[in-house]
Amino acid sequence: MKFMLIRRADADTENGAMPSQEMFAAMAAYNQRMTEAGVFLNGDGLRPTSDGCLIRFKNGEPTIIPGPLYPASERIAGYSVLEVPSLQAAIEWAQQWPTQDADGNVTLELRRYFSLEDFEPGAGLEQHRNLARVPNAMNVHVAFPGTCREAMQFYADVTGGQLECLLTYAETPAVEHSPPELHDRIIHASLNLRGRRLMGADLAADCYTPPQGVEVQLEYQDIEQAARTFAQLAEGGKIIMPFEATFWSPGFGMATDRFGVGWMVNVSSDNCPLATEGDSP
Description:
- The protein is an alpha+beta fold and 281 residues long.
- Helix content is 22%, strand content 31%.
- The chain has 6 helices and 14 strands.
- It has a 4-stranded antiparallel sheet with strand order 2-5-1-6, with helices on one face. A 4-stranded mixed sheet has the order 7-10-9-8, covered by helices on one side.
- The chain is globular and about 65 Å long.
């Protein structure tokens, strides 16, 4: 079940008061615990309603009501999206909300998402099912010649992601059909990057081929963080394209790391709009 954990606004959040460093760290630790438990999908804080507006429709005609909006207690200051088995499980996580927030005086709200199974059959439901053809996730799987453990631990250190699985051949039924030299090697590794996963495995020498024609792409908003990540990935490897400004991004680089895996590190930008129908190539 998917729930939204809503942090209601108050006078401080509506006045734009920023969290203390203690609160900021406590919230990061809270999100990290939920990430490690596999229940945290995403979450964000919201700027005050003075930076937004209401769009209210009457008889189909919109009216724009600029912020700030009152009362503060009916507004949202932030939210987290959790994937848990029950409302009780969501409540248990909500009860662990950092007490450093507003000295422990906050109001949280839990709301369960609808799923398609909640709706009656009909044409509208079929349209939504058609949209559901899009996968819930697209992950990347990389093969290694025996260096999977070292590589995945390196990627976890570089990206700050959660290394949630390092499973050896010896720990699975596949051990009966695997040569002895594979027994202590990795059959499945998973690095969680904000819900997206870089996975990997070691292959036998006669099955392994170095990756070609494909790169793992990392997207950042902070150009300094992107540059640091690129430098770490490129160290001991080969720079294909130095990290620098391009016509589509203020920072982009390509490199092959010391494990033979190709990377693109990109800073997001609005300078690459989608082509519209009828545009010339």
